[in-house]
Amino acid sequence: MNEIATLPTGLPAEASLALVQKSESTPIAGHGIRGFLFARLLAEPEGCLNDAAYDENLLFAACVMHDPGLGTLAAGQARFEVEGADLAATVLTEHGIAAADVDRVWEAIALHSSLGIADRRGLLTYLTHKGVFTDAGHFTDLGTAMPATGRRVTVADNGEWRAREADGERAA
Asked: What average pLDDT does the segment 87-107 reach?
């Protein structure tokens, strides 16, 4: 992990971003990106990076697509977590992600807000929960996980994700 704000690339990542940019407000979409960055930050000091269950691409998909159930594509017929998980599963399946991996992402999204459950349902679900709730301010004890970079991740008006210096200047 060379650069804190480097996001995964490739078709599943692009599809995940496309879904949230199409269906969610900019602040909600930004929350998903920051949730991923927090989850990634937390994974290293907790020793998760060497765990066979750690998959950064699936973590990105789960964190970024954890709230489409609040967006314009949701039917409003079920809990937002379930509707979001269903939307994410459709996107991942359409892009050739293996069914077992789609199921892991579905579970992580469906349970991301389930306190006392998410941390018992595997690494992906745990990290998704921890990352998005850290961004929401529920977990504040980051210890050494949070480097003092002076940067924050924002989204530009054109939808491009950027690392910015704390004073608002574009990071190099």
From this structure: 91
